[in-house]
Every structure is written in structure tokens, then in C-alpha cells.
Amino acid sequence: MADLKGRFDDAKDKVEGTAKEAQGKVTDDKGKELEGKAQSTFADVKDKARDAGDDLKEGAEKLTDKVKEGFEDLKDKFSKDK
């Protein structure tokens, strides 16, 4: 649930940043334009980091499953040898 809230917050920040950037362009306010661009870019970075974390977690879960399968195979092999 926290991840979903984080993704929502990132999307909201991206939209707000894009709006500030557009406002800065329309009003020729370079500060507002850069602020918006920075906010939008930071939201993208957070979203990509969240994706990378999800990928790492998924990879770790797959590795754990493979290790468990390996232990089960070894256990079965030693049980048959007795």
C-alpha cells in the first residue's frame, strides 16, 4: 500500500512540476520554469528508483526459490541414498 501511495505522489509531483514549468515558460519566469523541471525530473528519478527496487526484490525472490529448490533436490538425493 505504501508503494502505491509513493507512486501516486510521484505522479502528482510530475504533473505539478510540468504545470510549473509551463507556467514559467508562459510568464517568462525562468526560476519557475527551472523549479518545475526539477520537480518533474526528481519525480521521474524517484519512480525509476522505485522500479529498480521492485526489480531487485523480484530477483531476490526468484533466487530464494531456486536455492530452496536446490536444497529440496539435495535432500531428496540424500534420502534416496539411505
Descriptors:
mainly alpha; 82 residues; rod-shaped; single chain; 2 helices
Give a topology summary.
Blueprint: H1 2-27, H2 30-81
Helix pairs in contact: 1-2
User: How large, in whole angstroms, is the Cα Rg?
Assistant: 23 Å
Number of strands: 0
Q: Please give the largest β-sheet.
A: none
Number of helices: 2
**What are the segments in which pLDDT stays under 50 over at least 5 consecutive residues?**
none
What sort of overall outline do the alpha carbons produce when their principal axes are compared?
rod-shaped
The helical percent reads over 70%
Specify the structural class.
mainly alpha
User: What's the mean pLDDT score?
Assistant: 91
Q: Tell me the fraction of residues in β-strands, as a range.
A: under 5%
Distance between the termini: 49 Å
SSE order: HH
Family: Belongs to the UPF0337 (CsbD) family.
Pfam family, one: CsbD
Protein name: UPF0337 protein EF_1180
